[in-house]
């Protein structure tokens, strides 16, 4: 199977999954591939739009229904949620429209917004506007990048593009591993985990005493 066939078969599914989780990088590269005729730019845009939109709607719903319980049982989330709560209190509409462009707060933000009492229709409307702008910027940016590479590098741009793609994937994996390692060694997170463990032991003791 050629690269073009592989992208046409699974590329759009990958965009949907990637943008549902986060996905700026995959949209940019899909835009680049679209510039070379290997993917359809309108379909890249549509997949990016609905992937990111529905992903944030799901995170919003989880935050609205189970946010307090999840936050209580996962103390490592509290550090980022404080920043989101502060920004949301000061710039509610502006933050909802822009959070997907803020590195480090992208995934936690719709979860926290759901905990803040904002209605489903209001969030859905603002989320769709932001998702439309986001998908346009990254899919279109990738397309323009691909055309620029083609003009400057000629026939070599395809091989260089694949090399850059492999490098980005490698760096992404390394970044995830480093962040997890740092999180596990962060004294504040370790302290929160100890507090959570003590609370769980107390609840277990109380439950045993009541029996």
In short:
This protein has one domain (3-156). Helix content is 85%, strand content 0%.
3D structure, described in words:
By secondary structure, this protein is an all-alpha fold. The protein has one domain. The protein has 9 helices and no strands. The chain has helices at residues 3-21, 24-35, 41-73, 78-90, 92-98, 108-115, 120-153, 157-185, 187-210. Helix 1 (3-21) runs antiparallel to helix 2 (24-35), helix 4 (78-90) packs across helix 5 and helix 4 packs across helix 6. It is elongated, with a radius of gyration of 21 Å. The model has no long low-confidence stretch (mean pLDDT 77).
The total of beta strands comes to 0
**Overall outline:** elongated
Q: How many helical stretches?
A: 9
Q: What amount of the residues lies in strands?
A: under 5%
- N-to-C span: 63 Å
**What is the CA-based Rg, rounded?**
21 Å
The amount of helix comes to: over 70%
Structural class: mainly alpha
Mean pLDDT: 77
Number of self-contained structural domains: 1
Largest sheet: none
Low-confidence stretches: none
Listing every helix as H and every strand as E from the N terminus to the C terminus, the arrangement reads HHHHHHHHH
